[in-house]
Predict the structure.
Amino acid sequence: MESLKVALLGFGTVGEGVYRTIGTHQERLQKILGKRVEVVAVLIRDARKRRNIEGDVLITADFNDILSLPQLDVVIEAIVEKEPSYTYLKKAIKKGAHIITANKEMFAHHGKELIELAEKYKVSVGFEATVAGGVPIIQTLRQLLMVNSVQKIEGILNGTSNFILSEMREKKQAFAGALFQAQENGYAEADPSNDVEGTDAFYKLMILSKLAFGKQPDWNKVEIAGITSITGELVVEAQKLGLRFKHIASVQNVNGRIIASVKPALVTRSHPFYHIEGVQNAVNIQADIVGGITLSGPGRGCIRRRVR
Ligand SMILES: NC(=O)c1ccc[n+]([C@@H]2O[C@H](COP(=O)([O-])OP(=O)(O)OC[C@H]3O[C@@H](n4cnc5c(N)ncnc54)[C@H](OP(=O)(O)O)[C@@H]3O)[C@@H](O)[C@H]2O)c1
């Protein structure tokens, strides 16, 4: 049977998760695609690390080896930072491969260019994994946009921050204790700054902004605050008033001007995010015809737990 040849860029939490999922879901993938899905190569940084990868898969630290493959249908990218990811994906598109990325930092910066280049080379760009892992927000937005005009999007886009805020409230913990628990559970990196300082949610919000409004706000004018200033005492005081802290990324179109912020906010019981707890993500879309829609589901935590 003909097979779809896939190269994986990165074999960390996401890359290895994708590799294992392709293995365990082969039958279902074949039914959908009519072809076997075969991971033929894996790009990593450290060629000396031992990895649990089948013997016939090319493992390389040199991207030219990937480009030299005799057949390359899809490149799935799960490495970190803007570069070299952007350069690699441009080259993959020019070789005629479809691309799929989980890299929100790169895609927030270069999504537009990659989509334009892919159109030129008649290949597709998948970026559902860049925003809110287990919540199908990208395809929902695309579908809504066919007839609706979106006015505002709000989201709990970082499961680590949401987990920490939930822990602080439920277990009456200080920020440091809740962060430690997040790290113990595999929900936070050894360096959690991107998550707790709001940068991760910001990149995701910029991807949503481009999709919903066709543009992003001036990045320098976006207020970005994380959850590090929220103390255990503040959380307890809020709870006495029937309020909960949530870390909310928000973007709206005000007469053609895009206004965005990423910061903690107090929400009341009637707010759609009041009951979003732990590593859950949620996105609320306000659109002219359908009104308000809220989607919620597992964020990064689900990926980490499944791989471990
Ligand atoms: N973790 C999540 O829950 C999650 C969810 C959604 C999206 N994402 C995004 O997905 C991407 C990957 O995240 P992750 O958590 O899987 O990261 P990770 O565990 O740190 O893994 C990164 C992988 O990329 C490889 N790599 C890094 N720089 C490279 C380079 N210059 N050339 C070749 N390979 C390189 C590393 O190689 P070595 O193994 O040799 O070090 C490693 O295999 C990130 O952009 C992240 O923002 C993550």
